[in-house]
Amino acid sequence: MTNRRTWLVVAIIVLAVVAIVLYWRGCRTAPPEPTDVARDFLVEGVSVDSPDLAVGPAMVRGTVHPGYTDWACLFECREPDGCRAEVQMVITYMSKGKVERLIFGGTLQAAAGETMRIARVQRPPTPVDEVESIALEVIATLDPNAPAPTPIE
Question: Are 77 and 111 in contact (CB under 8 A)?
Answer without folding.
Answer: yes
